[in-house]
């Protein structure tokens, strides 16, 4: 008669080192702490590039992957490292792109562009120094951009109807009236006084901030809202 002996492994508890990614959450906490310290340094006045944040996560993840090769299990950290590496590369690429800073200050109505566009950066059109604002009567100025800041300063003595459209995330500020979110549209007007010339502004961005104001800054008491699109 053959007697089967019970396996010596029966009833033995599993090795806790072989269960679950025990280093994952510890690594996430350590990365969050490192990023927080970097943010404090940034707020303290030290210039910290945006790519430094994912690079910090990448460095912490790399160290913990090395630790996981000898102690514990580092499940999930490879994916985190790949995402951090991709974010770091994208950040470095963006930082190498120098945004444009366009400033146009025409002194005559003839020098005011009827249509213009830009890709990345800031665009400032100052009409407050136009010596013959009456020649702006009936004119429409259309400016579009991809990503950035679009500012138009209009003379006090001109009636202005301004429409701002930001397709993606951003905000529109028309004569002190703010509207923000995603897919934001607003139309407001400025009263330049009796028999003032009338100017129309058509402004559009993909992402960023649009602002229209007078030289004496925004004052909601002198603007009246016509239509405002919903932010979705």
Report the end-to-end length measured between terminal Cα atoms. 80 Å
Shape: elongated
Helix content: 10-25%
Q: What structural class results from the helix and strand content?
A: alpha/beta
Order of helices and strands: HHHEEEEEEE
Estimated radius of gyration = 29 Å
- Total strand segments: 7
Strand percentage: 35-45%
Largest sheet, order of strands side by side?
Answer: 1-2-3-6-4-5-7
Descriptive keywords:
232 residues, alpha/beta, seven-stranded mixed beta sheet, 7 strands, 24% helix, disordered C terminus
SSE arrangement:
Elements: H1 24-43, H2 52-68, H3 77-95, E1 100-104, E2 115-126, E3 139-153, E4 159-174, E5 177-190, E6 198-213, E7 223-228
Parallel strand pairs: 1-2, 2-3, 3-6, 4-6
Antiparallel strand pairs: 4-5, 5-7
Helix pairs in contact: 1-2, 2-3
Can you describe this structure?
The protein is built from three helices and seven strands. Residues 16-20 and 218-232 have low confidence and may be disordered. With 232 residues, the protein is of the alpha/beta class. Helix 1 runs antiparallel to helix 2 (52-68). A hairpin with a 2-residue loop joins strand 4 and strand 5 (177-190). A seven-stranded mixed sheet has the order 1-2-3-6-4-5-7, with no helix packed on it. The longest helix is centred in the N-terminal third of the chain and has 20 residues, at 24-43. Helices cover 24% and strands 36% of the residues.
What's the short version?
The protein has 232 residues and is an alpha/beta fold. It has helices at residues 24-43, 52-68, 77-95; strands spanning 100-104, 115-126, 139-153, 159-174, 177-190, 198-213, 223-228. A hairpin with a 2-residue loop joins strand 4 and strand 5 (177-190).
């Amino acid at each position: 008669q053959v007697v089967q002996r019970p396996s010596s492994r029966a009833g033995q508890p599993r090795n806790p080192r072989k269960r679950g990614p025990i280093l994952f959450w510890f690594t996430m906490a350590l990365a969050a702490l490192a990023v927080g310290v970097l943010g404090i340094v940034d707020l303290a006045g030290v210039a910290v590039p945006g790519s430094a944040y994912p690079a910090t996560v990448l460095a912490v993840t790399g160290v913990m992957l090395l630790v996981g090769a000898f102690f514990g299990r580092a499940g999930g950290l490879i994916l985190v490292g790949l995402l951090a590496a991709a974010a770091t590369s994208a950040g470095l690429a963006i930082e190498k792109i120098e945004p444009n800073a366009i400033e146009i200050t025409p002194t005559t109505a003839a020098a005011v562009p009827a249509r213009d566009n830009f890709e990345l950066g800031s665009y400032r059109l100052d009409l407050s120094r136009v010596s013959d604002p009456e020649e702006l009567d009936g004119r429409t100025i259309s400016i579009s951009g991809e990503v950035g800041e679009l500012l138009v300063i209009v003379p006090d003595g001109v009636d202005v109807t301004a429409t701002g459209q930001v397709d993606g995330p951003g905000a529109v500020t028309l004569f002190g009236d703010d509207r923000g979110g995603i897919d934001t549209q607003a139309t407001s007007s400025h009263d330049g006084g009796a028999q003032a010339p009338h100017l129309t502004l058509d402004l559009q961005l993909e992402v960023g901030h649009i602002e229209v104001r007078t030289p004496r800054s925004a004052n909601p008491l002198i603007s009246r809202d016509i239509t405002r699109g919903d932010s979705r």
